[in-house]
Amino acid sequence: MIRILIVDDHDIVRQGLKKLFEKVQGMTIIAEQDNGINALHWLRHNDCDVVLLDIYMPGLSGIEVLKQLRDEKPKLPILIFSNYTEDQYAIRLIKAGASGYLTKGCMSAVIVEAVRDVVSGKKYFSQEVLEMLVNEIRIPEGKLPHETLSDREFKVFRLLVAGKSNNEIAAHLSISNKTVSTHKTNLLGKMNLQSVAHLVHYAVQHGLDE
User: Fold this and answer.
1) Which residues, 6 or more positions from 10, have their beta carbon under 8 angstroms from its beta carbon?
2) pTM score > 0.90 for this model?
């Protein structure tokens, strides 16, 4: 029996997955958590065979949970299950040790197949994600990292360098805080930088801090 832990802050997603796996022989949802902190606490006192992990959650993000679990339980398969299809998420999560990456719009059969694969020691990435990785994993020849950003990502980049908070950027661009966080994660990944401090240093080096 494959024992599955679901970690997602949306109840409707957890309920949908529970209904799916109730119909699959040899698989069972052993527990569910709605945030990363509770998931880590549960895993320190319990065992499962695979984790279905969302990216954005209250407390710790899925990326942070993944990195911590790779240190604490390096052999535990972790399958990312997210709304986000951006290539930079996939690249960062592969580097952080994800066993697979699925989007929430995929078919039920794909989810079941992915769970079986990662539990058996294989990797599972949807065709959509694989195609994005092929297209985006390298910086185009002759371009500087900041030149690979989309227009919106570059605007967020400039505002971050100017010292604006996520709330201020969201208000300035008329977007949600969550969207700002998404753009921030994407641009850091595309530029292969780790923090806003590194962004500022890069901006100074390239005369983009005006």
Assistant:
1) 54
2) no
